[in-house]
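Case study 2.
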Amino acid sequence: MTRTGIGICVRDDDGAFVLAKTLSFEVVHSVNVGEALGLYYAFRWLTDMQLDNVDFETDSKTTHDVFHPRKNDVSEFGQIISACHSLFSTHFTNSRVEFTRRQANEVAHALAGEATLLASPVIYFNPPRCINNIIFNEML
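Prediction:
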């Protein structure tokens, strides 16, 4: 089994860091299921934080395309997307899910890489070292 990580970064309208979370788990799923789980965990976390008006970015074109428009899929992947839809439609009234190319999503990938090195989920209230330079360079 391989360990995979999920990185979630919350930024304000100007792109400044607000907070981030990393988590990892043993992979027993397809890549598509792992990407859908990443979106699901982001929805759950921000629902628990009672945040709204959030733009979610995924670099998984498959996850984005199945999320928009909603398609009926009885596979494990489809069931996770269905759970995402339920959370999204209930808790995120002024939000959207967008596709972002992997090259433009460096922060999430750096956080996901960091997550594979950690034993348990971590919430960051200050930018962790692994993304500090990326965020700084993006704001220039």
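The first strand starts at residue 2 and ends at 11.
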